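Illustration: PucR family transcriptional regulator.
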Amino acid sequence: MARTLDSAGRDRRPGRLPPRVAAVLRPELESLAEDIMTEIRGTIPEYAERRHSGARAELRSIVDQALRTFVDQISGSDESRDRRDELCRALGRGEAYRGRSLDALQAAYRTGVQVAWRRVAEVGRRHGLSSTVMSQLADALFAYIDELASLSVEGFEEARSRTDDERTELRRRLLRLLLERPRASRSALERAAEAAAWSVPAEVTPVALPVRARCVRAALDDDVLADLGTAEPHLLVPGPLTAARRERLLAALPERRAATGLAVPPGEAADSLRWARRTLALVDAGIVEDAGLTSAEDHLLELWLLADGALLDQVARRRLAVLARMAGTQRLRLTETLGAWLETQGNAVETAKRLRVHPQTVRYRLRQINEAFGEQLTDPDSRFALEAVLRAGRMRERSPSLR
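Result:
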């Protein structure tokens, strides 16, 4: 059974079907959505391509919502219709923003209704639905898919009326909204995302770029948000940073240098971008190794210890006050010995190996350290504070800019 997808069915509403129809269809929706997406990915190249994963995610959202709304509608409820309308229009806008025609989306709709009808027919036979009911159900299903297609056409035409500059600005505003403090409301974020034809994901990963970094925007995935004209240029990648995403990001960065934050919920994006920028600063300072696309997640301890230099100075001043009163050479040796001893969990022999001195020399220094620090060395909290301060101090010594 085939129909032409157009706007003819936009205002057609199916007659009320028996309540039993919705009851037998509802348990099928989740697996049916998966079957529809599998068929679309397998038969329509545009939705199988890796770089259009964002389009697939959008399409999956509308498949789920459309199926739920269809079952609601045949049972007489219109509660979820507004949400479905928004998604269908956004799907059409997304195709326009990606520079594509509606051919692929129309093909996806045709594929979806074919898969859906096969399942509906099978369910009808299984539950003994009458031929009259099945005929009504067929009319309802194909009128419904015409309605979805018409909504997507509306969104497509709306988006085509906007210039590329307008689209870029909408996405830049969306990115700024995502990073805003205090956080923007969920409704404001959803409105901005809809206008920019961008699906809000469960997680995002910010990327900090060096000042005046070159970035080939066309080489980025379409769903990556970018603000490259600021003093601190940055990107926002939907979802975690997969290996494939990393490859494409590096390809878009001629200098092959940036830092990534942690994958976090959208509401925490500002914090994650701050960690990414701090990681980039640590790379610049030589504190952490430049990995091309350096991940903040690999350097959380360094980020934590060096997060507040002024506060670190205050803690060091109090915890290491007894060392500050010593002569320079003695202070240096005891500081070095204390740090190594704490890191080797109080093992004098291992401390000597690390410092490349005789164990007896270490024992002599430890007697001086015990005299100076006393009970601090037996108190777990004090030992932890001493080790943290000494570790941070060694990091800062490698870069004057972080002192």
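Reading the tokens back as a structure: DSSP finds 17 helices and five strands in the chain.
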